[in-house]
Structure formats: C-alpha cells, structure tokens
Design goal:
Layout: H1 6-15, E1 19-23, H2 27-40, E2 44-49, H3 50-56, H4 58-72, E3 76-83, H5 86-94, E4 99-102, H6 109-125, E5 129-134, E6 139-141, E7 144-146, H7 156-166, E8 170-173, E9 190-191, E10 197-198, H8 204-213, E11 219-221, H9 229-236, H10 250-258, E12 261-266, H11 268-284, H12 291-314
Parallel strand pairs: 1-2, 1-12, 2-3, 3-4, 4-5, 5-8, 8-11, 11-12
Antiparallel strand pairs: 6-7, 9-10
Helix pairs in contact: 2-4, 2-12, 5-6, 7-8, 9-11, 11-12
The chain binds glyceraldehyde-3-phosphate, 1,3-dihydroxyacetonephosphate, zinc ion and sodium ion.
C-alpha cells in the first residue's frame, strides 16, 4: 500500500536501521528500485524532486509508483524531495503524495520555522507527513547550488525549538554529507593505498548532540550516495569524464543507520549505475539502437545496487 513514513520510522528507529529514499525519474528507475526491494522484502521511500516532476510529469510518476505498489505489494511512501515553496508542497499533497519535504534551510531560522509550520498545518490536515531541514549541505540540488563556503553544519542548540515550533515529523540535518557526485574536493580528502580519495569523516559528534536534544525523533541524511568507484571507472573507461568523483563511505552510512537516522537519500549512485551501464553498452555495441537493449542492463544494475544498499548499508531487508 501507499503509506506515510510514520510506522516505517518508528520501526526503523527502534530496530536500528534506516529506510532508503531513492529518487525516481522514469519507469526503469522505479522498476529497478522496487524489484530490488521486493526481492529482499524492504519498505521503501520513492522520492520525486521538483526537477523530476517537471521532467516526467506528476501524473506519470504517481501512476508508476501505483503500478510498483500493485506489482510488489510493499509499503511504499511517495515523497516530495526538496520542496521549495508552500505551493509546490500543497500541489503534491493534493495530488496524492504521502510525504513532503519543505526545504527552507537556506532561509533565516525564523523564516524557515514560519514556512515549515505552514506546510505542516496543511499536510497534517490531509494525513501527510513533513520532513524539514536545518543546516546547509554543500552541492547541487535542483536550481540551488550551495558552495562549500555557504554550507554549514546543523546547530544542535536550534533543533528543539525548530521541531517544537514547526511540528515537523522528521528532520534533515547537515553533518558533512553533500549532494551530487563530487562531494569533496581533492584538497579536502586524503588518499588510500589504491590512490583513491578518502573524504573527511561525517560529524557524528554533531549527530550525537542533536539526538540528545531530540531523543526518539527521526533524523534524515541527504547527499548520501557513496559514488561507487566501479561505476565511475565504467563511465571513464567508456568515453565519460568524471575525474575525482567521490562519495560517503558506506561504513559511515551503516553507522548512521544503526542510530537515530531513519531515512537515507540516494540519487547520484542510481545515476552513475545507469549512465555507466549505458555508456559501456554503447561502446561495446555501436551497431545497436533499440532502447530496450541498453535500458534493460541499466535497470538490472540499478536493481543490484539498490539490493546491496538495502542489505549492507541500510539494514532494512526483511522489514516490510
Ligand atoms: O537532491 C537532489 C536530488 O538528487 C534530486 O536532483 O533536482 O536534479 O532531480 P534533481
Ligand atoms: P546524492 O546526490 O548523494 O545521491 O543525494 C541525494 C539526495 O539527497 C536527494 O535529496
Ligand atoms: Zn537532498
Ligand atoms: Na536508524
């Protein structure tokens, strides 16, 4: 069934795991993710950005998710990712989403509270839950590009007031994750024996401070792709150019999932799997032109990637 995150987060918090929130933009992505979840019996959040909605159209996305629910029988939450206005959130609430994010984290604290509270009021009246954000992640999301200098960690001393004044149902925080495939510059990283970039560790000390002030409250991590180097190599070896792409090490996400983090957002890894697979296919079969022939292995690799995340990173397999 189409569900909210209320039950999912309660069980995830108590069970020491996290729900995967994967971005969807077309049929093959929806199928790859949901077939993986079905195989390992995992609850799911499928999320749609403003850009995804502009690309694929609200109705198509709703129907794709409904089809996935019918095919899998899984509890799936349909969530608006990075809603940037009350109007966009309202449109998704009215249009059948079960969860919305209002991201006013770039606004001053008081303004963030005000707009978030307005969205919460409307959403709760309609049985929909709300994710809000405090702190600013570096990286690119939709049209917003937050430079590393403008990014800042969540201030733990603000979280209680924010949650109690807004009534939000979950809170996205900034503890060092970042959007996109280039989460850190080479200068911010060290290198391992293989010469691969090793990013600075997430700020678990800040997370601990937040959890002390919000015991039992579901925390969300954005920008949590790990940027698998096998797919970066596949892209680079087949005509692509993604030098120094780097993500969050999976072990740190596992650690977050064991604690208060109940939702972990992954988009870039799906893009890398899809693009790497298609680039390789084109390189190896320059004579082929039937989209099904390259979308099929792309979908299969998304499925394998998601299965790996559900079992080895999020720990939500068997929890549907
Ligand atoms: O946080 C951003 C997500 O990866 C969605 O990206 O706005 O390009 O659809 P998008
Ligand atoms: P990634 O770019 O790390 O996949 O983050 C996705 C995200 O946070 C979507 O909201
Ligand atoms: Zn995000
Ligand atoms: Na958790």
């Amino acid at each position: 069934p189409l569900v909210t995150t209320t039950e999912m987060f309660k069980k995830a918090y108590d069970g020491g795991y996290a729900i995967g929130a994967f971005n969807v933009n077309n049929m093959e992505i929806v199928q790859g993710i949901t077939e993986a979840a079905k195989e390992v019996n995992a609850p799911l959040i499928l999320q749609v950005s403003k850009g995804a909605r502009a690309y694929a159209n609200h109705t198509y996305l709703i129907k794709l998710v409904e089809a996935a629910i019918e095919e899998t029988g899984l509890p799936i939450c349909l969530h608006l990712d990075h809603g940037d206005s009350f109007e966009l959130c309202k449109s998704c609430i009215d249009g059948g989403f079960t969860s919305v994010m209002i991201d006013a984290s770039s606004k001053p604290f008081a303004e963030n509270i005000e707009i978030t509270r307005k969205v919460v009021e409307y959403a709760h009246d309609h049985g929909v839950v709300v994710e809000a954000e405090l702190g600013a992640l570096a990286g690119v999301e939709d049209e917003v590009n937050v430079s590393a200098e403008d990014s800042h960690y969540t201030r733990p001393e603000e979280v209680e007031e924010f949650v109690s004044k807004t009534g939000c149902d979950s809170l996205a925080i900034a503890i060092g994750t970042s959007h996109g495939a280039y989460k850190f510059t080479a200068a911010q990283c060290t290198r391992n024996e293989k010469g691969e970039l090793v990013p600075p560790p997430l700020r678990f000390d800040i997370l601990d401070e937040i959890v002390k002030r919000l015991p039992g409250f579901p925390i969300v991590l954005h920008g949590s792709s790990s940027v698998p180097q096998e797919f970066v190599r596949m892209i680079n070896e087949n005509g692509g150019k993604m030098p120094d792409a780097v993500g969050i090490p999976e072990e740190q996400l596992r650690q977050a999932a064991r604690g208060a983090v109940c939702k972990i957002n992954i988009d870039s890894d799906l893009r890398l799997a899809m693009t790497g697979t298609i680039r390789q296919f084109f390189n190896e079969h320059p004579e082929k032109f039937d989209p099904r022939e390259y979308l099929k292995p792309a979908r299969a690799n998304i499925k394998e990637l998601v299965k790996h995340k559900l079992i080895n990173v999020l720990g939500c397999d068997g929890k549907a």
